[in-house]
Amino acid sequence: MPALSDVIAQLDALWPPERAEEWDAVGTVCGEPGAEVRRVLFAVDPVQEVVDEAVRLGADLLVTHHPLYLRGTTTVAAATFKGRVVHTLIKNDIALHVAHTNADRADPGVSDALAGALDLRITGPLVPDPTDPAGRRGLGRICELDEPLTLRALADRAAARLPATAQGIRVAGDPDRTVTRVAVCGGSGDSLFAQVRAAGVDAYVTADLRHHPASEARQHSPLGLVDAAHWATEWPWIEQAAAQLDEISDRHGWNLRTHISRTATDPWTAHAASSSPSSTPGAPN
Questions:
Q1: What pTM, to 2 d.p., does this model score?
Q2: Alpha-carbon separation of residue 285 from 272, 273, 275, 279 (angstroms)
Q3: What is the C-alpha separation between 59 and 45, in angstroms, rounded?
Q4: Helices 230-252 and 4-14 meet at what angle, rounded to 10?
Q5: In sequence order, what are the beta bridge partners of 74?
Q6: pLDDT over 90 for what percent of the chain?
Q7: What is the C-alpha to C-alpha distance for residues 242 and 244, in angstroms, rounded to an integer?
Q8: Nearest to 192 by CA among 142, 259, 228, 143
Q9: Residue 108, preceding bond cis, omega within 30 degrees?
Q10: What is the CA angle 239-240-243, rounded to 5?
């Protein structure tokens, strides 16, 4: 069995921590470097439900995309929910490792997994990493469809291929518009609208689109927007990441057992459709 330090060295080779954004908090949160690792659980969020799943599974290592302490802390008291996560992990000898924006920029990274889930053919990064001479790393991906779809059909594909959430899939634009080129960005993507417009794509699939950036993007061009839940757009990455560690384990003869958390950690739990005509501004009472 490999030591935790051996596994972390391989994970850091996949997602080098120095490629994370300056504001990010990536790397190992807790864990004994010399401890043996037999089972690894991959998840999007390091929340209590996922940590409890790791305990039931008998995992030695939990790998998540989102950081536990993104903005730092002054306490790990068990009276706080994040402190309780840390206490549960340490009591059960489970290490926690985070790959966030360093996994976003990787090749393959979070947006590659999203594109793969939607059967999109990747042509390059949306925001290339200037340190990558091969031109494959960076934020987001520019993709092509093998056969044109309408915007409505692309949204239906996203609804069918991504994990179900209370939000579902929101669409902005003409639903009958033909789409052949698509930009994707797993997670929050409305800071990249300038690059999306420059790429000349027909649609943009991402998450967490806010009113003003989306409205301004629609005024600039007939770009179609497909807005999924943040958790849902990043979940395909954990399947990809587990497969990458499986390949490393096979190559080194580690015989690791990797597992994928299917615990839904999207924070939204219900959706009420606006169906009453009287709720529309200007509608007769």
A1: 0.95
A2: 21, 19, 14, 9
A3: 16
A4: 120
A5: none
A6: 95
A7: 5
A8: 142
A9: yes
A10: 90
